[in-house]
Amino acid sequence: MSRAVLSLGSNLGDRLGHLNSVVTALRPVAVSSVYETKPWGVEDQPDFLNAVCVVDDPARDHWAWLRAGQELERAAGRVRELRWGPRTLDVDVVTVDDVRSADPELLLPHPGTPERASVLIPWLEIEPDAVLPGHGPIADLLAALPDAGVHRRRDLVLG
Ligand SMILES: Nc1ncnc2c1ncn2[C@@H]1O[C@H](COP(=O)(O)OP(=O)(O)OP(=O)(O)O)[C@@H](O)[C@H]1O
Ligand SMILES: Nc1nc2c(c(=O)[nH]1)N=C(CO)CN2
Q: To test ligand 1's pocket by mutation, which of 106, 108, 116, 123 has the most ligand atoms within 8 angstroms of CB?
């Protein structure tokens, strides 16, 4: 083990470059298109670029994926200020295999996932049959959401 689904987001600075830093460092086995998304949570902030990737490394457990994401956030110069506020790079661990965790340092699956079209749309693109542990097929979760201001940017490509 383990195979992880990571959600990437950026709305400050070189947004595409920040997302690309994850692809360069972690060499995912699958990467979605890049999506321009309206901010949720705190709405008065710049639009995000979001993408989802699948990474696979038998040597890394779920904590190692969290740490790898946090290191990349630091390298992108991320300053943690406002919850749900603007950031150079956000790496959320969405799932790691079937791991369930209630530890606040690493909640698995990531609890925001069922409500976030900015995660579900790119994830569905690369894993159409994916199931969110405890919640069911992601296609069904997405179908239950209102139209959410998520637009594919065909002009921006990762990797
Ligand atoms: N699955 C997870 N992936 C990433 N971080 C997590 C996860 N579960 C818990 N955390 C914890 O969340 C803390 C805050 O993360 P962060 O500042 O990125 O939150 P946020 O992006 O503003 O909000 P959200 O977590 O709802 O997306 C981190 O310290 C991290 O330990
Ligand atoms: N569209 C969108 N909105 C957000 C995002 C994000 O990645 N995409 N991340 C946030 C901080 O966790 C807050 N709001």
A: 106
- Distance CA(17)–CA(116), nearest Å, equals 23
**CA 93 to ligand 1: nearest atom:** 3
DSSP letters spanning 51-120: EEEEEE-TT--HHHHHHHHHHHHHHTT----STT---S-EEEEEEETT--EEETTEEES-TTGGG-HHHH
Cα angle value 93/70/23 (rounded, 5°): 70
- pLDDT tens digits, one per residue of 60-98: 999 999 999 999 999 999 886 788 889 999 999 999 999
What is the set of domains in the chain, with CATH numbers? 3-152 (3.30.70.560)
Ligand nearest to the CA of 8: 2
- The DSSP bridge partners found for residue 5 are 54, 95
Of the ligands numbered here, which is closest to the C-alpha atom of 108? 1
Residue nearest to atom 12 of ligand 2 (CA): 84
